[in-house]
Amino acid sequence: MNAITSAVWSRRPQTSVRIVDAHAHAGPYSLFFIPEASPDAMVRVMDRCGVAHAVISSHLAIQLDAAAGNAATAEAVGRAPDRFTGYLTVNPWQDPDGELARWGDDPRFGGIKLHPDLHDYPLTGRRYAGVWEFARRTGCPVLTHTYDGSPYNDLDEVDAVAAEHPDVVIIAGHAGATPLGFDRAVEVAQRRPGVILEVCGSFNTGPDIARMVRELGPDRVVYGSDFPFIDLRISLGRVIFSGLAETDQAAVLGATMTRLLQWRSGQG
């Protein structure tokens, strides 16, 4: 039994590994109620579990209003910069280049968030051109929603973008989201070295995560939760009890994402 597992069974926060949640949100969602969705409430759960940091985009930004939502993300990060880093949400229909210009140099943001399914716009569309250029120039990672079979962010879309922009780090949110999607996500990541798989979602399991790490390596897979949309403890438990070696587990839980967030120190 390793230190993290021991902490879980002892019902105490783990302190042996720096855990970074690579896929989180904050705030209310318009379609259904999410209890305790504020950043302060999220920190209380993070403390309970020993999660050091989370990379967040506000639900407002990804769904209804990118400009107001990005401002809310920046405010949340500004209040707790030791616990949060922001994703700059780019909605292709809501002044994408303007949002990049407004927030691209703001150190509160450590990544870009795309949600083609919610925005009804394909990942390969030309309105994202500024995103890929910014990411190529700076090293900023781009987290995109993925879902197998989607007309907007299927794994074929990820594959095409990664082929066109081989120098960009693309974090495939949900790793395709379904069992078939996991297979296809692994295949895309094997072809495209810039693709990182993120593991949150309703269908992912410990054995799925272990296979991703086995076939790609621990530097190509990151823990994420979709918190507070989904409770972070669900995705966290899958990684903790997936049977990974301690060094691989530490990389997936935080070390790999920590490295990806260091791009500003070497920008340009």
Summarize the topology.
Blueprint: H1 3-9, E1 19-26, H2 39-49, E2 51-58, H3 59-63, H4 66-79, E3 84-89, H5 96-103, E4 109-114, H6 116-119, H7 129-138, E5 142-145, H8 155-164, E6 170-173, H9 179-191, E7 195-198, H10 206-216, E8 221-222, H11 232-240, H12 246-260
Helix pairs in contact: 8-9, 9-10
GO biological process, one term: secondary metabolic process
Protein name: Amidohydrolase family protein
Pfam family, one: Amidohydro_2
Tell me about this structure.
This protein has helices at about 5-10, 40-50, 60-65, 65-80, 95-105, 115-120, 130-140, 155-165, 180-190, 205-215, 230-240, 245-260, and strands at about 20-25, 50-60, 85-90, 110-115, 140-145, 170-175, 195-200, 220. Helix content is about 45%, strand content about 15%. The chain is built from twelve helices and eight strands. It is α/β, with parallel strands linked by helices and about 270 residues long. The mean pLDDT is about 95. The protein is globular. It starts with a helix and ends in an 8-residue tail after the last helix. Helix 8 packs parallel to helix 9 (about 180-190) and helix 9 (about 180-190) runs parallel beside helix 10. It has a single domain (about 15-260), classed as Metal-dependent hydrolases (TIM Barrel, Alpha-Beta Barrel). The chain has an eight-stranded parallel beta sheet. The relative contact order is 0.14.
Write out key terms for the chains shown:
16% strand, globular, alpha/beta, TIM Barrel, 12 helices, 268 residues
Look at the helices and sheets and give the structural class: alpha/beta
How much of the residues is beta strand, in percent? 15-25%
Report the span from N to C terminus: 44 Å
Please give the share of residues in helix: 40-55%
> Any idea what the shape is?
globular
Mean pLDDT: 96
The named CATH superfamily? Metal-dependent hydrolases
